[in-house]
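Most newcomers find our protein records easier to grasp once they have seen one. There is nothing in a record beyond a sequence line and a structure line. Getting from the letters to the tokens is the skill we practise here. An example says more than a description, so a record of this kind follows:
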Amino acid sequence: MMMKPLQRLLLAAGLGLGLATGVQAAEVKIALDGPASLEKSGSYNWTVAFGKVMAENGFEVKELPNGSIGGEAEKLDQVQAGLLEVSLSDVKSVGKLDAFIYGVRLPYIFNGVEHMDRALAKGKVFDRVNKSIADSHVRFVAIVPLGPPSGLITTKKGIHKPADMADMRMRALDDAQIAMYNAWGSAGTIVSWKEVPAAMQTGVVDGYMNSATVPLAFGQTDIVRHFTDAKVINSIRAVIVSADWYDGLSDAQRAVFAKAVEAGNKANRAWVEQIGPKAMAQLKEAGVEVIQLEPAAREAFRKLSLKVYDKAPLPREQVDEWLALSEATAK
């Protein structure tokens, strides 16, 4: 059986390669959020690069397959309890602790991943959130894009303009997404991710919003028939770690950890940069219609989306902070 990239690295590390650095061995379990595929998953590219640095420096790294320890709530609970060191989690897991982070999910606030990264850096968002959640036993260390900005993934018809959404019911992650769909003239209903394929097949929902890479990564191209490149928000995951575990690391181990996070971020961004055109081509090859919005149509979606800023799950003054950060870091 062919070994996965991280498994090969861990085997080498197990021979004692990393212990030469003087860093004492420590276990690092990483809860994945999707398929363990370097080709299909942006978050797995982050995981492998992160794990490589950790393994080369004496850490014992173990991947936990998606869903093997439960859903998002269970992963958060285990991080807080110190039973899980690292988790690729949804942004909502951080938002439960500090609503400020929901600003990264405001529709049309960023023009892509690079714009978001500039805003995160200028606003010192990780420092701010970690200070706010200091008593939660969670440390927030990275934002991991899953691919190019989100579009509309639908089953029964393609979307060319907001009016096309009138008779659609879309899968929503939370009430904020329902409000956005309502602003566009459609409806939304909250469906857990594992139930999305069945919900689309039975007509409970007519699609969902996510990156073009997602239906490919999760093998849904036999269900979805249309992808509209609406570029609504960056499709992202949050990397959270056990603060108790992190606080127990030595200075040398923390330096390794910081280097590993940086390596993960670099690998993920490199993958995102090249995957957009490839994902569009693969969708077309699978028989999915790919629709590029006309500028006027995208602007219509953007203007309608402004209605939900007052209904976002964070205070209006924080929304305004994000808008100011967006404007200050736009190019």
Q: What stands out?
A: The chain has a mean pLDDT of 91. The first helix runs from residue 5 to 14. The longest strand covers residues 138-145. The radius of gyration is 20 Å.
